[in-house]
Amino acid sequence: MKNFEYHRPADIKEAVDIVNNSGDGKYLAGGHTMIPVLKQRMAEHADLVDISMISDLQGIEVWENNIQIGAMTRHVEVAESELVRKSIPALSVLASGIGDPHVRNRGTIGGSLANNDPSADYPAAVLGLGAIIHTDRRQILGDDFFVDMFETALEDGELLTAVEFTVPDRAAYLKFPNPASRYAITGVFVSLRDGHPRVAVTGAGPCVFRQHEMEQALLAEFSSSALDNIVVADDDLNQDIHASAEYRAHLIKVLAKRAVDSLEE
Fold first, then answer.
1. Domain membership of residue 40 as a residue range
2. What stretches in the chain show pLDDT beneath 70?
3. Are residues 36 and 78 in the same domain?
C-alpha cells in the first residue's frame, strides 16, 4: 500500500470539498473493497476521505409510502431495523444475507451501491423496487444508475448520500450464494406495486439488470406458472469457476419462480 493522506470530515460539504480539491481523492465508506485494492496496489489515491462520521449520511427514515436510508447506514442496521422490516421485509432479508457478521457490521449500503460489484445484493433491490439514488448534486433514478461492471452514473467527486425506496405491495429476494463469500452467484428481486411487477437480477451478468420478459409475463398474470415458457438466454451472462453461464440462466428462472411463489402464499 502506497502512502496517502487520510481525512475524516465532519459534514458532507467538507468531504466533497476535499475530494474536489484533491488530484485523486476518493471517498471511503466501509472499506471492504477499497482497502484490499489499495493493499494489493491495484489502485492508489492521494487522499482518502473517510465519511463514516458524517451524521447526515446515517439513519433510516419513513414517511408516507417511502423509506429513505442514509448512505453510511450499515448492512446490520438495515437488517435489524423495525422500520425496514415493517415497510419492506424483503430488504431486511436481503441485508441479513450479505457476507458475514464482520461485513454486515462494517459495510454500508452507499458503499455497496457506489462500488457496483456485479454480485452485490443491494443493486437488485434498487432496480427491483425502482429506487431513487440521492447525491450531493442531484437525484438519479435507479434504472439509470448502474452503467456496467463496477461503473455507475456517479460523476467525479459526486457523493452518494441516500437511497429512497417506495414501499411495494409485495416483494421478495432470493439468491444462490457463494458458500464462502455469500456474494450472489445469482440473485433475483421481485416486487409488485399497483399491479406493476419488477424483476431484477444480480450476480448473473456483468451488471445488475431487469428481466423485462418476465415482467411482461407477470403483468399479464402474477403467478410462477406465467414464467414457465420463458427461456433465459445465457449469451451475455457470467461464466467462472463458480457457475457456467448456462447454469446462471437456469438459476434466474428458478429463483424468479420461487420468489413469485413466496409472494402468493
1. 5-50
2. 1, 265
3. no
pLDDT score of 265: 66
Q: What's the pLDDT at 121?
A: 98
Q: Give bridge partners of residue 173 from the DSSP assignment.
A: 189
Backbone φ, ψ for residue 177 (5° rounding) = -85, 150
Instruction: Provide the angle, in degrees to the nearest 10, between the axes of the packed helices 122-129 and 89-96.
Output: 160
Per-residue cell: 75: 448492512
Q: How far is CA 259 from CA 54, 55, 118, 170, 189, in A?
A: 37, 36, 20, 11, 8
Q: Give the strand pairing for 139-141 and 132-135.
A: antiparallel
Based on the fold, state whether residues 203 and 239 are members of the same structural domain: yes
Work out the number of other CB atoms within 10 angstroms of the CB of residue 162.
Answer: 23
Residue 13 belongs to a domain with what CATH number?
3.30.43.10
* Backbone φ, ψ for residue 44 (5° rounding): -145, 140
